[in-house]
Please model this.
Amino acid sequence: MDDALVQRYLRPGTLQLGAPPPLSVYVHLPWCLKKCPYCDFNSHEFKGEFKSVRLSPAEAPQDALPEARYLDALRADLEASLPLVWGRSVHSIFIGGGTPSLFSPEAIARLLSDIRLLLPLLPGCEITMEANPGTFEKDRFRAYRAAGVTRLSIGVQSFDDAKLQALGRVHDSAQARAAVAEAAACFDTFNLDLMYALPGQTAEELAQDLSTALSFAPPHLSLYHLTLEPNTVFANHPPVLPDDDVSADMLDQVVATTAAAGLQRYEVSAYARPGHRCTHNLNYWQFGDYLGLGAGAHGKLSYPHRVVRQVKWREPATYMREALAGKACSNDEEVARKALPFEFMLNTLRLRDGFEEALFQERTGLPPSAISQGLAQAQAKGLLERQMSESGVVWRPTERGFDFLSDLQALFLPPA
Ligand SMILES: C[S@@+](CC[C@H](N)C(=O)[O-])C[C@H]1O[C@@H](n2cnc3c(N)ncnc32)[C@H](O)[C@@H]1O
Ligand code: SF4
Model:
């Protein structure tokens, strides 16, 4: 990282931010066994041999996952990023993908020890890792735990074999159940990712998926409405999906069923038992900072007079080459002053409890007047309510505001 970049981020400007927000680290591991037809994440099918992965490149067969080289690149990426986050401690780490559980526990241990060596982690730092059913042998989860992972997030999607097939998943229902049972046995806290409004799905089928998920007493559930993302197989060959009315009813079904099981919907797609909210995602939604490491990883970093976004090289081979040469970052940009209110609202209004008024100035460096008109309009339309808490004024989406979230957020778009 050249000093010129740090100087550029630190130079004077018109924004006046408060103390730096909590810092999280996101690490992207970009490979999957097979690309799912609905997925637009930066994930790349790896056609080589996963079983014979070795830590040393010398030992690894030609077609093995380049685990060691990728870890070297991540370390170089982190080393080059250190001047950007000097003096700050890490609140949470999220190892996402792709399919991180294709990496061996030894690789995850090395990754976490590299991070620990270079950055101070706060006591109790949450360390989440995504794992896919069907990508691990027995005892792997325990080994991830021993490597330092504190929370597992399992990409189940559905427990219904026909739906899993329609989604192009590599695992079946039995493997999903085995993965969840193993996570529950090995971790104090874990998450299941499920999707709803699946091809041809009925309310009864959704009820069955929810009931199976809840039978494992998960501390946290993420429930996503399946969306057709541009440039995916599903966008070009769309399956028959439940219509808008049916999928709206499905969301009501999800909210009611999870609430009856003691899970609180604290964000648009996130449901948790008390004490099990995801620290890492909460930091995103509270417009906190995160350092992104790995292929295509995004980062957001705050300085006294600006907020900066960074993106790392997207294609894994390019990323490894560039990161090892000290140039992992492919793009960076300062968030424009006029875009900050919308960016702040895009995140914080996803939270059921909204945001404390003082947080806006602290995180964006803008005066409260930058959002006063939008807040008044949202209140007049019945989309936001103003409440008093012990620590001051809180702005919270109303039921209606939460249902029409994009209309609410659009009130804070920069003037054309
Ligand atoms: C980073 S992704 C991938 C995690 C993991 N590789 C997996 O597939 O299980 C995290 C979650 O986003 C959700 N997701 C991905 N694509 C989606 C889409 N098109 N619509 C809705 N949810 C999606 C899935 O539930 C997925 O588990
Ligand atoms: S396994 Fe997950 S990240 Fe990989 S292609 Fe499928 S949905 Fe995307």
Observations:
- The pocket of S-adenosylmethionine (ligand 1) is lined by residues 38-39, 41, 96-97, 99, 130, 132, 155, 157, 193, 195, 224, 226-227, 229 (CB under 6 Å).
